[in-house]
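help with this:

***
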Amino acid sequence: MPYLDIAELCADYGSQRVLNRVSLTAEKGQMLGLIGPSGSGKSSLLRVLIGLLPPASGRVTFAGRAIDQRNPADLRHVRDRFAIVFQQFNLFQNMTVFDNVTIAPIKIKKRPKAEVAAEAEGLLAKVGLADKLKSYPDELSGGQQQRVAIARALALRPEVLLLDEVTASLDPELVSEVLDTIRLLASEGMTILVVSHEMAFIREVSSKVAFLAGGMVVETGDPRQIFDAPREARTRDFVSKILRH
């Protein structure tokens, strides 16, 4: 059984159907790249998984357990095991980097302060910010703030990391430092679902790629197949356009 199994998932924003019978699987330690045009349902899928958007129908199974995002107990189960990083950093501006990373494990998960502090220092070192513990967000570049956001998510000890266009709001010269952090996590066997328009990165790091359009999964495959020999006409059209620019 797949580690994460999404089957026939549908979801709506008001009267608009944003996910239409989406079926995908991800194995433990795999990086699943989600690509497609804007409005194709990629971010909506992550929001359903983390419980920010209720599904209309379909099922999600994680580590052998069926998950109903509308059930409070199942939602707590998911949020204990999944963490999401958004395009916007959403850091607390009145808190230091260190406090931003430690507040949730201490306040929400009730973990010992000393243990959380030691782990936070290690995570900030991992993302290349060991010297920024006492800095405030407005003293950091956009790339540094996004790396703090990733460290904050990792401090929750997730089993699955969801990354939603985490480089989209960054200046081009800052993108590489965030991508390097994600490369490191992928190399360490973190299970990651990543929505991104950084196609070269998706091709390089992903174990599997899913192309979405119109709220549906059009095609899935390994990166070489999706980018070099897509089977579906819609995928070929998308890939040909992005590779020309």
